[in-house]
Amino acid sequence: MRGRRLAILGLLGPFTALFAATIALPIGFALYESVTAIERSGPLGRGTTSTVFVGLEHYATALSDPAFTASLWRVVLFALVQVPVMIVLATTLALMLDAASARGVKFFRSVYFLPYGIPGVIASLLWGFLYTPGLSPVLDVASWFGLNIDFLGASSILWSIANIVTWQFAGYNMLVIVAQLKSIDGDLFEAAEIDGASAWQIITRIKLPLIRPAIVLTTVFTIIGTIQLFGEPLILRPLTGSITSTYTPNLAAYNEAFANNNYNLAAAESVLLALVACVFSFAFLKLVNRSGK
Amino acid sequence: MRRRTFIALAAGALTSACAAAPGARPGQTVLRFWSWVPGIDQAVNLWNSQNRDTYVDLELTPAGSSGTYSKMYAAVRGGRGAPDVAQVEYQELPGFALENGLIELGPLGMDQHRDQFVDWQISQSSFGERIYAVPQASGPMALYYRNDIFGSLGLDVPRTWEDYRAAAEAVRADGRYIATFPPGNSAWFAALSWQAGARWFGLDGDVWTVGINSEQTLRVAEYWDELRSQDLISMQPDFSNSWYADLQSGRIVTWPSAQWGGPILSGNAPGTSGNWRAAQLPQWNPDNPASANWGGSATAVLKGSEHPREAAEFAIWLNSDPESIDLLIAGGYGWPSVKDALDGTALDTSEEFFGGQNVNRDVFAPADETIGTDWLWSPTTNATYLHLNDGFAGVVAGGSSFVDVVQQTHRQTVEDLRAKGLTVREAS
């Protein structure tokens, strides 16, 4: 009995310790920071400092800042467009690669997946060059046809970012769906064919229902990923005047912490962002479960 | 037992990794130094090669606002891990002072050495009568312009901002822009406001005064608003690839910039060598010429240092020893903060890139004499910069003006300072 208890402790210990140190503790600390503030006294504020409890004051500050709420709406709009585009594209690519008549499957699978192997920062830099007037071959070619495209303008920059994100992650999501497609029993297709099902019917009646879990999974990942949009706008920011320091909620929290040295407000903004991501992810799961029943 | 040994070993490895700097001799005091100034490693090597009791362990960091300041703030607040000596830009010094992060250097040698440095930079490094940093370099401003293009269009060098507007119209008619208004670089806008006589911040006893929306700043904002609405300026970010491409191709023909901008021009538009010249900034009031300062840095000793005396000695040496200054000039660190910066240094030379003009003696030395010296930064300068940048980005998107942005930033800055627990008054 004693040995068994020890074994349980031994097996769970490493996980619990890591979970506490890397998940629970940072979240707890962020929550603590978000409800405290530093108070100063003395000339120049260089007297004494003390940490005081301020309740939800930072949350109120964040939510009453029009720039921060605008950034929340911006990522929500971004997700509303980005998530369907991503999932439809990834599913289509996966189904095309899985089609019986497909050729060069391994080659194309690798090609689609390749962008995921490029670090996000480098991908953003590369795309940044393709978006910059005077350097971009894309813009040069467009100008031959009299087209004046402004990838970095205020109205287009969000979709230029969407392009980078799609380019980078569509192949990865495709691979998750391909893996599920591969696990479908081949007998099902054979039976369907004998019953006279067309290729389209096989997709809609067999493949799509059976890869549903993979699609749900990639959708949740994409929702969370888009709400947390950060690296792409951060890298593109020096190239354009259209990306503000509060362009996305993550960027706002980052600048609040590391440029304004206000960790407390940054913590509150981060917690708010996590809540939004939770709400959207669970709302989606709830929707899926209800329609699945 | 075994686990305990492992932990002991691991702890041992960690402490020994922190203790000694490679290169230090036994018995030497080791000073940790964080900086990102190009060429500063040469100066540090010189110090270390001169067989002293202290060894400087230089860590080249990313530029302050790219994360190094946040590391320093975190270390100062946490009480350990901060370097002994650190690079701090002038606009960031009040922020560190607010966090009680700086060691007063007057009693550690600066009181004896203060006369070696330019007065206004001593004031940038002081709070009240106390000196908290050793001035290193500044950025007196002037106008870089394309002499060949100005010549072919029959334009004279603009003496006033009204001349500059006329030149902008002529240049635009030729399919070029006179300059960019960098929407993401409000330090540049601050410098131009400084030139116009604005003073954004002041300290009246314990009370901070904010005067961002002063007449002078609004005048500058309005001027650039007019140029923008007539499409006479480009609105692309400075130091961006598209801007460099435009400098190289002649699509942009002037740059109101600091002395340290010269090497940036020659490095990024080498194909235009020989065609650039420098002249005094266009003036608001030519009878009373003024320049401004853009950029500028000091060397500070951070709280928590166990060797403040040695650290101060090094910081003073770094910024006043002629050999050290020569090495820093070669690295392109800017305009030295010591008095008579030009005499006998590598700065006093004519440059091929500027068609043989000795821009430092001809232009920047006199410009340096006309910088308004009572400019002050606030502990929340960074936030002010962000408000301006975000506002200017909004102007690019359309719908507002630089003047609106200045008004809005003024209000936000008052709030920022209050939020830090400071007493604030609006200057009027």
From TrEMBL, chain A:
It is a multi-pass membrane protein. Belongs to the binding-protein-dependent transport system permease family. Keywords: Cell membrane, Membrane, Transmembrane, Transmembrane helix, Transport. It is found in: Cell membrane. The lineage of its organism: Bacteria, Bacillati, Actinomycetota, Actinomycetes, Kineosporiales. InterPro entries: MetI-like, MetI-like_sf, UgpAE/MalFG_permease. It comes from the Bacteria. Residues 72-284 form the ABC transmembrane type-1 domain. One of its GO terms (cellular component) is plasma membrane. One of its GO terms (biological process) is transmembrane transport. Pfam families: BPD_transp_1. The chain crosses the membrane at residues 75-99, 111-131, 151-172, 210-230, 270-288. Its main location: membrane. This is Sugar ABC transporter permease.
TrEMBL record, chain B:
It holds the Pfam family SBP_bac_1. Keywords: Cell membrane, Lipoprotein, Membrane, Palmitate, Signal. The keyword Oxidoreductase does not apply. Residues 1-19 form the signal peptide. It comes from the Bacteria. This is Extracellular solute-binding protein. It comes from Kineosporia babensis. The lineage of its organism: Bacteria, Bacillati, Actinomycetota, Actinomycetes, Kineosporiales.
